[in-house]
Amino acid sequence: MIEVVIDDRCGGCGSCVDACPSDVLAGGPSGKAVIVRQADCQTCYLCELYCPEDALFVWPETERVVGLSTEQALATGDVGGFRRDSGWGEHAATHTNQHWRMGAIFERARLMAIDAAAAKPAREQDGRTS
């Protein structure tokens, strides 16, 4: 689940916002990404892949928010690791893209999105918006 947007690194490009299939991220008042719907995170790592500044940290826990701080995320040494290990961007020359290994996570994210879309009309009929 997405845990941290590292404000000092975020350049405000919006790539992570555009990549997120669940609208978990949005542009904040400063133009930088902010987490707005953390519980809807599918742990698909797309935001990490598309962030050229390594300003996002997704923890592999999919069921709950762990509550990591920026300092704790940086201390893991894994900030930007998924992007690097996937061979994206500047890492393409030194790392083989192993993105195919994410198939099970992407399938889970797809099924969650289908369930969420099906539940949305029911929530709206009940007068609930989220």
TrEMBL record:
Pfam families linked: Fer4_9
Gene Ontology molecular function terms on file: 4 iron, 4 sulfur cluster binding; metal ion binding
PROSITE patterns noted in UniProt: 4FE4S_FER_1 (PS00198), 4FE4S_FER_2 (PS51379)
Gene3D superfamilies: 3.30.70.20
Record keywords: 4Fe-4S, Iron, Iron-sulfur, Metal-binding
Keyword Lipid metabolism assigned: no
UniProt cross-references to InterPro entries, sorted A to Z: 4Fe4S_Fe-S-bd, 4Fe4S_Fe_S_CS, Fe-S_Ferredoxin
Iron-sulfur recorded as keyword: yes
Domain 4Fe-4S ferredoxin-type: 1-30, 32-61
PANTHER family: ADENYLYLSULFATE REDUCTASE, BETA SUBUNIT, BLR5484 PROTEIN
Protein name: Ferredoxin
